[in-house]
Amino acid sequence: MRVINSPAEVIEISQRHTEPEPHVLDGMVDGAWLDAQHFPPLQWSVQGIVPEGFGLIVAPPKAGKSWFVAGIGLACATGGLALGKISVSRRPVLYMALEDGHRRLQGRFRQILGEGVPIPKDLHVIVKAQPLAVVAMISEFLDRHSDKAPLIILDTLGKVKPPKRAGEDAYTADYAIGTKLKDLVDAVSGSSLLVVHHTRKAESSDFVDAVSGTQGIAGSADFILVLARKRKSDDAVLAVTGRDVPENEYALTTSDGRWSLDGMDLTDAAATVESRQQKTALADRSMEILRFVSSRPETTAKDVEAEFTDINNNDAGTYLRRLHEAGHISKPRRGTYSPVSEPSEVSERYESAGHTDQGEPSVSDASHTSDTSLFAATEGIA
Predict the structure, then answer these.
(1) What angle, 0 to 180 degrees and rounded to 10, lies between the N-to-C axes of helices 131-144 and 170-186?
(2) N- to C-terminal Cα separation, the chain
(3) Where along the chain is composition biased (Polar residues) (predicted)?
(4) Cβ atoms of residues 111 and 74 within 8 Å
(5) Which of 23, 73, 310, 363 has the highest CB neighbour count under 10 A?
(6) CB under 8 Å to 273, separation ≥6 — which residues?
(7) Reduced to 3 states, what is the DSSP secondary structure of residue 234?
(8) Going from the N-terminus, what domains does the chain have, and what CATH number goes with each?
(9) Which contacts (CB < 8 Å, 24+ apart) does range 130-134 have?
């Protein structure tokens, strides 16, 4: 027979018999309970772009993502217009610009805001942080402003991402980082955490695959923004997806560090993306026809129709006529076209852009096929 030796042991035994044992299904609820709940509506830092929760903004180096998030932060701290068109509510903003200094940020903010506009007091800036301290910093800021739906911008993830431990699975490590950040912002209703990250170098048809690292980072995020801009171009596309975000692509433009929607609103900016794509496709076809004409002594609309089976005789004639009007091909007689005596600048650029014998552009140089000098050869062609 076992002897009880102390009052503490008596209490322990008593609690053991009165407290129910934890059960693996203790967190389970039924449909009736769920149906009876009333949850607050989803809040947005930037309507249609940045919802509450943890999200990523990814782009290649020097694509302008730091200017992009700076503009978002300034708009939210001021309560003005984000991307020049989207009305936002004023809220506290923490901008952790860990790749910049105070002088650079001051110049950047002043350039975005415009001459004479003060930097808003509700924008708070941190430029130095140790990786292990970032979580505590974010948590403290959220606690201080928990009643005001704060926005936190972390630029960049690479500055605070801890190294993977020996033997640790890369996906598990990435997912743990993302989950930790998500847990912080989920604890404060209405708050958003936007983290700047880089894209991977590999090409992909799915823009979510552009997120650098394993799928652990992307998988832990509530939403993902992918900013795509070609070098030396003011035009860009912002692809948006997420658990609670309507998936779409929006046309943007940038000038002097200011990012703006290319359209009156999100719907208009989405339509602009489609319009740009159609122009690019038409310009690509013009270049293919230009190459075809340049490879032959003479070409007629009937020849083009036979070569490109998806083009009818009328459209073929329109392409040829406009290429001639732009000076890219000659017209020795009515209805007949031939190469110019000297290769046009566009033709030379087309040949040097890595096109194959079939006239198809290489993936890496596809941007060259949208040369604006060929848009004239595509207007009015459906």
Answers:
(1) 20
(2) 95
(3) 359-375
(4) no
(5) 73
(6) 237, 249, 250, 251
(7) coil
(8) 44-271 (3.40.50.300), 279-377 (1.10.10)
(9) 131/159, 131/160, 131/161, 131/162, 132/162, 134/96, 134/160
112 vs 67: CA distance, rounded Å: 8
Among 334, 335, 337, 367, CA closest to 350: 367
Looking at this protein, which amino acid is placed at residue 213? G
Q: Render pLDDT for 211-247 as a digit per residue (tens, 0 to 9).
A: 655 678 888 999 999 999 988 899 999 999 999 998 9
**Rounded Cα gap, residues 64 and 227, in angstroms:** 9
**Strand 93-97 and strand 151-155: pairing?**
parallel
Q: Helix, strand, coil % (nearest 5) of the chain?
A: 40, 20, 40
Sequence-distant (6+) residues with CB within 8 A of 40 are 189, 190
Cβ atoms of residues 245 and 192 within 8 Å: no
**Beta strands 336-339 and 329-333, pairing class:** antiparallel
CA–CA separation, 150 vs 361, rounded Å?
46
- The answer for residues whose C-beta is within 8 angstroms of residue 21's C-beta and 6 or more apart is none
Angle at 81 between CA 75 and CA 87, to 5 degrees: 115
Q: Which long-range contacts (CB under 8 A, 24 or more apart) does 368-373 make?
A: 369/280, 369/283, 369/284, 369/287, 370/279, 370/280, 370/283, 370/284, 371/283, 371/287, 371/346, 372/283, 373/326, 373/345, 373/346
Report field, pTM of the whole predicted structure over 0.85: no
